[in-house]
């Protein structure tokens, strides 16, 4: 369902006109209200009166995460604190949190883009949505909540974690929609199978998954485990929260629509900062076009993806491909660039392993060593009569040695790097406890 056809299907020339007008206004607005931006634009010799709109956008430089830290907590706000209706923080794990603020009007836009997103994900007014994103400073819980209400859904605000209760509510309240991180949806799917809960006992039809990178492998697992059609929802606190972009349920696998009447996207080369051609991979950069409390010009998201128009799509807005990783977690190992999601793609469809994995990088002498920890699938463990997998069990079962060697070869052939494959028993790798799950550990700087 298209929630707001007048905007979501606005012909491109008109969309550009709208963006241009909004951008000029936004630049003048921050110049007048945010000292950080006024100084920055002055230093660049740019004045709002001569700023020509989208064509001049690349001249503005970038806003980076460090700019948020340097202006902690409220230095980037464009309105007096009394006009800020809500605060959130981004989920950074290092240093000070990034604080973001919203006026009442911003919260209206937030609800609108999430309503559009949920409609694209398959939701229709009258359905029930179980919201397993964390409520609190994280934008996921409340962001989805108010968008779902705006669309006319019944919200079950369960928040993240508490798997027993999640499963109980899925059976008792029978929601049609689940919102969760993909890694937590995996946990729910796995638990449903482990506890032998019949598909008919739950009523889920759709899942909107996001807040961390995920791949087609996870999609397949969640779709079959929960009996849903799963779509991607993307967003980030600095720009708004969830609902910056969303995949349409009938266009799965072809990218997520960016609501570009509010968030203007660019993709730039991670080294030069120059725009890349349509469809090419690079760093995603966003400019807010309508934000009041905390407008941001050209935010360097660090997320690596591509953007492109899809003429066959149901909406006119630009699409983005899946996030391949963050430029800060792109690993450069012995000169080869790689993202952990590439490992996930290789594990896809292999019946002998579970979809869980963990990549660790460490340094031995001057060499980077990569280990890929992979779980043997439940079925194979059962077949072999195993309760754990150790070096000793591997030595006893030739099929496990073959599996390990085949995986290492597949990785070497496809990624071009030798990695040591460590087989573990099913269930030994960490699962999501309701939030984001880290699938990579870089131990190189800890030594
Ligand atoms: O994660 C907002 C959100 C909540 C999105 C619920 C979707 C659903 P932050 O905590 O600020 O905000 O983290 C933003 O998470 O820059 C990406 O690196 C990553 N991310 C978010 N959505 C996706 C996604 C929320 N669909 C950071 N795929 C972003 C891949 C995602 N990565």
Automatic annotation (TrEMBL):
Pathway: Aromatic compound metabolism; phenylacetate degradation
Entry keyword set: Ligase, Nucleotide-binding
GO BP terms: phenylacetate catabolic process
Domain AMP-dependent synthetase/ligase residues, every copy: 79-286
E.C. code: 6.2.1.30
Domain spans labelled AMP-dependent ligase C-terminal: 335-444
GO molecular function, one term: nucleotide binding
Highest taxon above the source species: Bacteria
Reaction catalysed by this enzyme: 2-phenylacetate + ATP + CoA = phenylacetyl-CoA + AMP + diphosphate
InterPro entries: Adenylate-forming_Reductase, AMP-bd_C_sf, AMP-dep_Lig_C, AMP-dep_synth/lig_dom, ANL_N_sf, PA_CoA_ligase
Subunit structure comment from the entry: Monomer.
PANTHER family, per the entry: PHENYLACETATE-COENZYME A LIGASE (PTHR43439)
Record's function text: Catalyzes the activation of phenylacetic acid (PA) to phenylacetyl-CoA (PA-CoA).
Family membership: Belongs to the phenylacetyl-CoA ligase family.
Name of this chain's protein: Phenylacetate-coenzyme A ligase
């Amino acid at each position: 369902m298209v929630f707001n056809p007048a905007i979501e299907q606005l012909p491109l020339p008109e969309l550009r006109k709208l963006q241009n007008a909004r951008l000029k206004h936004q630049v003048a607005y921050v110049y007048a209200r945010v000292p950080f931006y006024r100084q920055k634009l002055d230093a660049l010799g740019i004045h709002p009166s001569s700023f020509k709109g989208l064509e001049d956008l690349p001249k503005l430089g970038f806003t980076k995460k460090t700019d948020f830290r340097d202006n902690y907590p409220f230095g980037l706000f464009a309105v007096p604190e009394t006009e800020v209706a809500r605060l959130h923080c981004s989920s950074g794990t290092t240093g000070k949190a990034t604080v973001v603020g919203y006026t009442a009007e911003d919260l209206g836009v937030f609800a609108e883009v999430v309503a559009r997103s949920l409609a694209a994900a398959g939701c229709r007014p009258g359905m029930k949505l179980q919201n397993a994103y964390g409520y609190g400073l994280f934008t996921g819980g409340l962001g989805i909540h108010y968008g779902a209400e705006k669309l006319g859904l019944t919200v079950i605000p369960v928040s993240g974690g508490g798997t027993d209760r999640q499963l109980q509510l899925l059976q008792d309240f029978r929601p049609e929609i689940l919102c969760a991180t993909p890694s937590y949806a995996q946990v729910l799917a796995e638990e449903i199978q482990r506890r032998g809960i019949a598909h008919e006992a739950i009523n889920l039809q759709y899942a909107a998954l996001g807040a961390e990178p995920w791949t087609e492998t996870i999609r397949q697992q969640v779709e079959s485990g929960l009996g849903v059609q799963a779509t991607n929802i993307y967003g980030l606190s600095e720009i708004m929260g969830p609902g910056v972009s969303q995949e349409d349920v009938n266009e799965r696998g072809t990218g997520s629509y960016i609501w570009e009447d509010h968030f203007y996207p660019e993709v730039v080369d991670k080294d030069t900062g120059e725009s890349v051609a349509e469809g090419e991979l690079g760093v995603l950069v966003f400019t807010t076009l309508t934000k009041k409390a905390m407008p941001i010009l050209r935010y360097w998201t660090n997320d690596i993806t591509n953007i492109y128009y899809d003429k066959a799509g149901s909406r006119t807005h630009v699409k983005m491909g899946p996030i391949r990783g963050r430029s800060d977690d792109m690993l450069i190992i012995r000169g080869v660039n790689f993202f952990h999601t590439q490992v996930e793609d290789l594990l896809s469809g292999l019946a002998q392993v579970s979809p869980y994995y963990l990549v660790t990088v460490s340094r031995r002498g001057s060499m980077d060593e990569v280990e890929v920890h992979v779980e043997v699938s439940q079925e194979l463990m059962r077949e072999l009569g195993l309760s754990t997998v150790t070096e000793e069990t591997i030595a006893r079962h030739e099929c496990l040695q073959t599996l390990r060697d085949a995986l290492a070869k597949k990785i070497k052939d496809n990624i071009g790097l030798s990695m040591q494959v460590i087989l573990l028993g099913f269930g030994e790798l960490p699962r999501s406890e309701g939030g984001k799950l880290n699938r990579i550990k870089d131990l190189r700087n800890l030594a």
